[in-house]
Design a protein that fits this description.
TIM Barrel, two-stranded antiparallel ribbon, alpha/beta, 12 strands, about 290 residues, 8-stranded parallel beta barrel, globular
Length: about 290
């Protein structure tokens, strides 16, 4: 089984492709971004004008996949038809990785939300078994993202203990979402840097960063609809210090500013990656690339 996470080295910065941004993406110049990320469910089998536009963009930029509806923590049977379609999509567009959320999103139908999984031993075994099934169908390792959540249905272990246990038993990799760490640290009152250090960072292969909404002094909502704030940028720097400058995606799902403003945030990712490269011994970078 291939690891499915091969990238052209470190220090890559990308932007999520959304239909509302399609015209702006078509106008991008070489070097503006290093890759795009899409939810495969939104593009599998799409033809017509959008299909042609997507293929044009995919010819110019590597395509990373971040799924929305696999329902890895649910109890409904895994959608093997979807998985086979994703495998074909990855082959067709030479996608270097596929990630999903460490959540559930279905119960006899799509719930259209990413809901928290209980932090229990039973849930660890259940999720890990489903991840193994997914990896068997795809023939490659997948990545699971540490999720934002607002209530925990059961906590027999800590969030980081749960993430560590699932990834170890499933033998899969980590999509490190630094904004989710920050959001959860405010909502659940923990130190984001201690939490970052407690994660299985040797399995981190990819990073997300995004903006969020301040609902109240003690409540942050993970919206991907605003600029990234300074504390989240600082957490990204800390992640790079521990993991190296992994490929990193700027997520923006709505409230789209002009593309020039989004590219300023992409450039800020690149600057942080370059600073890490300048300050990291070559031997450590070789380890990070493995």
């Amino acid at each position: 089984m291939s690891d499915g996470n091969t990238t052209n080295g470190l220090a890559l910065a990308g932007l999520g492709l959304r239909r509302g941004l399609m015209p702006a993406f078509k106008a991008l110049q070489a070097g503006d971004i290093d890759f795009v990320e899409v939810a495969p469910e939104n593009w599998i089998g799409i033809g017509g004008r959008y299909g042609r536009s997507f293929r044009d963009i995919a010819e110019r930029h590597p395509v990373y996949l971040h799924g929305l509806s696999l329902n890895i923590g649910g109890f409904s049977p895994l959608d093997t038809t979807l998985l086979k379609d994703i495998k074909q999509f990855m082959n067709d567009f030479h996608c270097p990785l596929y990630s999903e959320h460490l959540t559930y999103c279905g119960d006899e139908g799509q719930l259209y939300d990413l809901l928290p999984i209980p932090f229990t031993d039973e849930a660890v075994h259940h999720v890990a078994n489903r991840v193994k099934q997914v990896q068997e169908v795809l023939g490659r390792r997948i990545l699971l993202e540490n999720a934002s959540y607002y209530a925990a249905p059961a906590q027999h272990m800590s969030e980081s203990e749960f993430i560590n246990a699932v990834l170890a038993e499933a033998d899969c990799d980590l999509l490190l979402d630094v904004n989710n760490i920050y959001v959860n640290s405010v909502n659940h009152r923990y130190d984001p840097y201690e939490f970052l250090q407690s994660l299985p960072l040797d399995r981190a292969k990819y990073v997300h960063i995004a903006g969020h909404f301040d609902e109240a002094e003690d409540l942050r909502v993970d919206t991907h609809g605003a600029d990234v704030i300074d504390p989240v940028w600082a957490l990204l720097d800390a992640a790079y210090e521990r993991c190296g400058p992994l490929p990193t995606l700027l997520e923006r799902d709505f409230n789209f500013p002009p593309m020039a403003e989004l590219l300023l945030e992409v450039d800020r990712i690149k600057q942080a990656q370059q600073m890490t490269l300048l300050n990291t011994p070559v031997a450590e970078l070789r380890v990070a690339k493995r």
